[in-house]
Amino acid sequence: MSTQFPEVRPRRLRKSSALRTIFQEVEFDLNDLVLPIFVEEGVSDFGVIASMPGVLRIPESKLAGEIERYARAGIRAVMTFGISHHKDLVGSDTWNEAGLVARMARICKDAAPDMVVMSDTCFCEHTSHGHCGVLHEHTVDNDATLINIGKQAVIAARAGADIIAPSAAMDGQVQAIRGALDDAKLGDTFIMSYSTKFASALYGPFREAGGSTLEGDRKTYQMNPMNRREAVRESLLDQDEGADCLMVKPAGAYLDIIRDIREASRLPLAAYQVSGEYAMIKFAAAAGAIDEQRASRETVGAIKRAGADLIFTYFAMDFARDGI
Ligand code: PBG
Ligand code: ZN
């Protein structure tokens, strides 16, 4: 017969703060985090994002100073999102070597050469209609978008981006980018695919942050949030196409998916605590309903526990400032 209560008492593990600390199974630190940033061209002041309290749009002219500040605070990696004033039907500014995507990478690497600079590789911030690629009738033309995404990746990599992070949710995007980079003799450039990306309501505040013009939704290219089997399949396809790292997005409501992919692949795995996850904590804390510091630590820690090696979070600078 196995031993059980009253001899077995798990509360012994929790009796003191010291015991709780030494028996803690998972922890995270700044080395596990990526700070996503919004950079706006053609403006001179920081911009408030009402739905993301504490996050500001950075004017391009102040980007270098901000990156230096993040580096001094201990941030290791940033992901750049551009707020474009040069939108067109296809997002051609993204493959212009003098365009915003290229300039952001150049400015970040010049300001802090050791900062890992990830370039979000998509079109929705740069198209007049706000979709993640070339619009054909009412849907995004997958294969036409692949040609453009390869061009964007080459431009970003040449400008210094360490990691190309395609978020367009097009089939074959990793293969297209790998091919384009290799043809351009950029075989060393790393691809972190947003490999399992759900069509989530939790991107709401990001759309305000990025000045999105989208009408409708992205359900013909991003995944149905109810699909677990397909979520694993999507990431494994990107692994086969040559991704160097996989990603699950959003994170907090998809911990089962993070665990599934962690067990199905040996690649490093990232997870993205998205704008809506951040906003839910911020607004609940502002209303006095929850403690912000504890809630941010708990949610990011839980994403690590689920199996993510790297976590994208808008709380990264708060952790750098206040400790973890
Ligand atoms: C666009 C993109 C989105 C996010 C990152 N890249 C939004 C979307 O797919 O509509 C979301 C990030 C966030 O909500 O924090 N390709
Ligand atoms: Zn997009």
TrEMBL record:
Signal peptide: none
Protein name according to UniProt: Delta-aminolevulinic acid dehydratase
Catalytic residues in the record: 197 (schiff-base intermediate with substrate), 249 (schiff-base intermediate with substrate)
A matching Pfam family: ALAD
Protein family (similarity comment): Belongs to the ALAD family.
Source organism: Caballeronia terrestris
Swiss-Prot/TrEMBL GO biological process terms: protoporphyrinogen IX biosynthetic process
Binding site for Mg(2+): 234
Sequence positions that bind Zn(2+): 122, 124, 132
Assembly description: Homooctamer.
Catalyses which reaction(s): 2 5-aminolevulinate = porphobilinogen + 2 H2O + H(+)
Positions bound to 5-aminolevulinate 2: 275, 314
Entry annotated with the keyword Lyase: yes
EC numbers on record: 4.2.1.24
Involved pathway(s): Porphyrin-containing compound metabolism; protoporphyrin-IX biosynthesis; coproporphyrinogen-III from 5-aminolevulinate: step 1/4
Domain of life: Bacteria
Chain residues that bind 5-aminolevulinate 1: 207, 218
Keyword field: Heme biosynthesis, Lyase, Magnesium, Metal-binding, Porphyrin biosynthesis, Zinc
One Gene Ontology cellular component: cytosol
GO molecular function: porphobilinogen synthase activity; zinc ion binding
